[in-house]
Amino acid sequence: MKALKITMVVLSAALLAIGIGTTASAFHSGGVAECGGCHSMHSAKTGGDFLLLGTDQSSTCLNCHLHPGDTGPNGYHIMSANADMPAGTAPLQRTPGGDFGWLQKTYTFTVRGTVNTEDGATHGHNIISADYGYGVDPTNATAPGGTFPSSQLACNSCHSEHGKYRRLSTGTVATTGAPIIGSGSYDTSATPASGQAVGVYRLLLGSGATKGGVTFGGVPVAVAPSTYNRSESLNQTRVAYGVSTTGGQETWGQWCATCHPGMHSTGNYVHPIDQGLGSGISTNYSTYVSSGIMTGSFAAGQGPYLSLVPFAENTGDYSVLKTHAKNNGSFLAGPGSSDQVMCLSCHRAHASGFPEMLRWQMEGEFISYVDNTGAAAWPGTDTTPSAPQFARGRVAAENQAAYYDRPVTVFGAYQRVLCNKCHAQD
């Protein structure tokens, strides 16, 4: 009995440490985590540095953020285990940033007599994790449009492993000044009182942080619903992205440009970011239902907001953004003319089911088509006709999973690429 009691105490402590217990505190709690969760004084991983429990930084993160045996979206997991996504099945996680497991999905297919290969490495940021089989980007030696070395890309290239960045009660982001009382990422996060602080969104790196020879200028603004890793088959997950350039904060475009400055130069061949949508684009967005349908009439839980094409609201007010970060279909308003397009309007932050971590398939004319029964369908090698130029080596279930499990009826037949959500040229 004594041994059982000791075992239960140890188990309870472990559960609390990773945020599965009955308390509201998560492992990071908005800032630095329990030291022993990542480091060990006497039993660190052989071959690693900094007394880490993994061979490298990303492997240490994935010790918690990857869980073999998942059967669907699960909490804070951001990568599916290889064994849980065999050929013909999609990665399982549905976080707004995407599942790094897509990096392991390489597709080969034939279109008009030509064999094509879509390397999994094209699907996202190639973080390096020796323990979990993730290596250096095989194509890009540096970040596209920048100088950050691909050989140094890890989770802590974007996230602060020690979580020092905090939002004070004044709204200013700093690395000192008040203790962090909890996460600042969620609609349920506390509002810090005087002498308190909350963590910044997703422990992102901020002003003064230098990685791979580049230095960050600030932290972007966002609020997520507290349950965010979930299927969007019924209701969408809306992250309320905001805009602020004061007190150690910056726009999403500025933050991404830390590593990708060349992608943000001006000119006719660069999509604008961090600028107001204007009345025409915002009207298109709110009235666009699907290809050829501009009635602005949406099924329950399906619009006009579309999480496959998010935008940044022109506000840095967390009290407002908290009321907009929803997963139950209760806030689906489209953008105003001053709301902004951002990098994340088209790309996921981690990885996606499509090249360049895009939120939708850009390699074919249609993202949906009609099968031999005359019904709208997600394309796939297992559907008839197979439409290889649209299926691109995937079974239909993989394509549907890449759209976060939406039924094809959300768009209907012959839906063209989702650039049209803003531009309505279809």
List keywords for this structure.
single chain, 426 residues, little secondary structure, 3-stranded antiparallel beta sheet, two-stranded antiparallel sheet, 8 helices, 11 strands, 7% strand, disordered N terminus
Description:
With 426 residues, this protein is mostly loops. Among the domains are: 27-81 and 97-156, no CATH class; 355-423, no CATH class. The chain has helices spanning 2-17, 57-65, 252-256, 278-287, 318-324, 388-391, 396-402, 420-423; strands spanning 107-111, 114-118, 166-168, 173-174, 197-199, 210-211, 214-215, 222-223, 240-241, 369-370, 376-377. The strands form 5 sheets. The chain has a 3-stranded antiparallel beta sheet, with no helix packed on it. The model is unreliable at 1-25 (pLDDT under 50).
What is the gist of this entry?
This protein has 426 residues and is largely without helices or strands. It is 15% helix and 7% strand.
